[in-house]
Prior knowledge:
Number of domains: 1
Distance between the termini: 27 Å
Structural class: mainly alpha
Strand content: under 5%
Amino acid sequence: MTVLTSPLGRLRWTLTDGLTLVGRELGRLRQEPGQIVAALIFPVIMVVLFGYVFGSAIQVPDAGDYREYLMPGLFAMVTFSAWLGVMTRVAADASRGVMDRFRSMPMARLAVPFGQSGADLLTGLLMLAIMVGTGLLVGWQPHRGVIPTAEAFLLMIVLRYALSWVGVYVGLAVKNDQVADAMVPLGLPFTMLSNAFVPTEGMPGWLRFLADWNPVSALTAAARELFGNPGAPSGTMAWPLTHPATAVLLWSGALLVVFVPLSLRAYTRRGR
């Protein structure tokens, strides 16, 4: 017990239990192949739907290729969807009593939220890889070299991990998985109200303000800049779009600072 009372011992305990729960979540996906199939198909549908159906009617800044303009926005959309998937899985576990069983076990308190967010990060990397492959097939490509490209994907990974903690907290806070499922469509306005699919310049002033300060817009702008795709920030824009990488990191840090302790408290208090 002395080992566990030291900070290093508690950290090791949390990581060990958390990684065990990451394995549990990945094992559950293997038992539910429908979720994996949906995760594989979704990126392809998004590329085809927006790239070929809507793309013919949308003008890109500087007369660029719309699919090159689109792909960073789709990467941001998939990144933002992290909290929705985590929310529904956590709410389902909570409503079925799984969380109560976890609390009754000699397990680190942070391990369960850590396991949920860690598992989402791994599945998110798979979805991102599929979307990258699909984008390359339809003509998208990064133009600025390996390091800027890696930086763009690293920003996506960091923000996705931060957003997964939002999903953990909301999943613990809602009453059951039916409520969580009903909240999933609410994620669509956040991704649509951004520069992911169309430039924000043509929006009304109040709507453009919301879109420009949307973290999805910051991530999209950062990705376009780092990939060298059309629509990169230029001219007079809102601060998050003129400093998009910094804005993404600030958003990620703020989300982690707020929602990690909230998730821990919600997990500890649920069922009392």
